[in-house]
Amino acid sequence: MEKESPDALEKKVKERREGLPELPNAEDGKVVLRFAPNPNGPLSLGHARGVVINSELANMHDGEVILRFDDTDSVVKRPDPAAYAMIEDDFTWLAGREPDRIVRASSRMEIYLEYASKTLAEEHAYVCQCTGEAFKEFRVSKTNCPCRNRKVEENLKLWQEMNDGTILPGGAVIRIRTDMSLPNPALRDWPALRIQHTDHPIVGNKYRVWPLLDFQSAVEDYLQGVTHIVRGKDLMDSTRKQTLLYEKFGWTYPETLYWGRVKVHEFGGFSTSQMKSDIAGGKYSGWDDPRLPTLRAMRRRGYDAGAMRKFWIDLGLTQKDIAVPLSTLNSLNAKAVDADAPRLSFVREPCAVILDISETGMQQVTLPIHPEHPGKGIREWPLEDDIIKVSIARDDMDSSGEKRLKDFADIKITSEKAAEGLVGEVTRTERVGNTPIIHWLPENMAQSAILLVEEDGELVAAEGLLEINDYPDGTIIQLERMGFAILEGLDENGARKMVRLHA
RNA sequence: GCUCGUAUGGUGUAGCGGCCCAUCAUGGUGGACUCUCAAUCCAUCGACCCGGAUUCAAAUUCCGGUACGAGCACCA
User: Fold this and answer.
1) How far is CA A159 from the centre of its chain?
2) Which residue among A280, A352, A402, A495 is least packed, with the fewest CB closer than 10 Å?
């Protein structure tokens, strides 16, 4: 009765792991992750990895994701008050749900300062008044800095002076007392808080001493009960520094995973601060300028959140530094968007051709809305007169000879009338041979339109004629022979506006 | 300089000592289909950084080398 052959039994098929690997030491339902951007601008494609990985991992383990704004620096990476809401919005769009908790570091300052004075009181830290230069020498020579021996009372007094403004920025810093002979120089008495008198965009001048990332993040992860941290491998030493602090308090450090650097080839050199100044300088129209790698810009162009999630999940969670072409994302996005994208004809830089169609006997042309989904219906282009005027793209005029107007007829250009345009002649309506197919529009089906497209870094508004349609704004369409675009209202001249997505 | 990390087809990725003459995706090539330069379909190309060691058996473990990357900020 054994139906399977012994061979089949031995040859079990090896399963390929789908999606992300399971989190180590994860108890379903109790996992807490966090995504912690600096709110100095909206999220970009690079941040998307953090949103996707963390939210996906939380989904897999029935856990929570915290969106934490690490806004403790008001000098180097100054927070943008408008960024908080943009980031929440970006997060929700990409993750497909809202973060379970939202934490703003700047509104938790009292807590951080309390922990800071506690580390001082318990001799886990000290006030260091050396200059950065001076301390660097102690660090490389593995020698203790003189401030290290200060008594607790003295430290507390200086701490007071740091907080009341007596000590100016740069005058002192709080260092965690680790061990100056540690082999890894990055860990030797690392700085935890510094003085900042620059007003904070959200909380103003209320605080004079602000925590650095390693301290703020360490304390907050503990308070929030974060169980797993996924971060860039450039933060490996942060993990080590923070673990040293956790040990002092008797806390257990979360499981930590790392990813390597990713470079998306087409979006090579964009940083949030660079984009910000370029927008201010008028180089870009705003955060949603189609040339930018921000989530807002990509969303505006028609990128699908699910495709973007798949993109990052497929790249996985490895520590390799990788460079991926945008075409990989585009390929996933095309798959996500194609089935719902109605086909339309767009004639860029149109030129008119006069045609006598009386011999064809055709009164209308019918085309599918989507060639693979006939159920979506058809498009009908009425051809009302014997002499009609059609438009074809200037680019399609380049080569001479016959052309086939898609789904209609083969034509050839016979002459040119200065006023009216070109004059053509229908040679046949049936499809024979392989006459090059071009797309076109009859005059009564054409409305003026512009297509916003990036060409060599410039945003070009390509003028042309779009097939008349009543799809609402935001509809992703496929322009036949050109690629995907999204409908976006009317421009100042009343022309239908489109933004190009990708091929 | 010190410390840490990574190395599988063009690009990503799976692989946790024998199911591996290595997975999947993307890409390239050829073909089929198609009144879109899209989509679909079929076929095909193409990789375990190098050298030792352990083992009956290594992409998988260990050691050394090389390459690349990161940290050593009063940024995050």
Assistant:
1) 41
2) A280
Q: Is residue A107 part of a domain?
A: no
Ordered strands of the A64-69 beta sheet: A32-35, A64-69, A101-104
- Provide the β-strand partners of residue A323: A263
Domain CATH number, residue A390: 2.40.240.10
User: How many other CB atoms sit within 10 Å of the CB of residue A151?
Assistant: 10
Structural domain contains residue A271? no
Distance from the Cα of residue A321 to its chain's centroid: 18
- Is residue A65 included in any domain, yes or no? no
Please determine, for residue A3, whether its predicted confidence score (pLDDT) is greater than 60: no
Closest nucleotide to A438: CA versus each C1': B36
Nearest-CA residue relative to C1' of B69 = A321
pLDDT tier, A160 (very low <50, low <70, confident <90, very high otherwise): very high
Q: What percent of chain A has a predicted confidence (pLDDT) above 90?
A: 85
Angle separating helix axes A109-121 and A213-224, nearest 10 degrees: 100
Give the pLDDT band of residue A398 (cuts 50, 70, 90): low
User: A52 CA to B8 C1', in Å?
Assistant: 25
**Å separating the CA of residue A65 from the C1' of nucleotide B34:** 47
Distance A481 CA to B41 C1' (A): 21
Does residue A316 form part of some domain?
Answer: no
The domain total for chain A is 1
pLDDT digits (tens, 9 = 90+) for A72-105: 999 999 999 999 999 999 999 999 999 999 999 9
Residue A330's nearest nucleotide, by CA–C1', is: B26
Calculated CA dihedral for residues A55, A56, A57, A61, nearest 10 degrees: 100
CA-based R_g, chain A, Å: 31
Nearest nucleotide by C1' position to the A40 CA atom: B76
Q: Domain residues for A441? A: 343-500
Rounded to whole angstroms, the distance from the CA of residue A258 to the C1' of nucleotide B69 is: 13
Nucleotide with smallest C1' distance to residue A320 CA: B6
User: Taking Cα atoms as reference points, which of A377, A347, A501, A353 lies closest to residue A439?
Assistant: A347
A34 CA, B68 C1': Å apart: 30
Specify whether the CB–CB gap between A486 and A474 falls below 8 A: yes
A98: how many CB neighbours lie within 10 A of its CB? 13
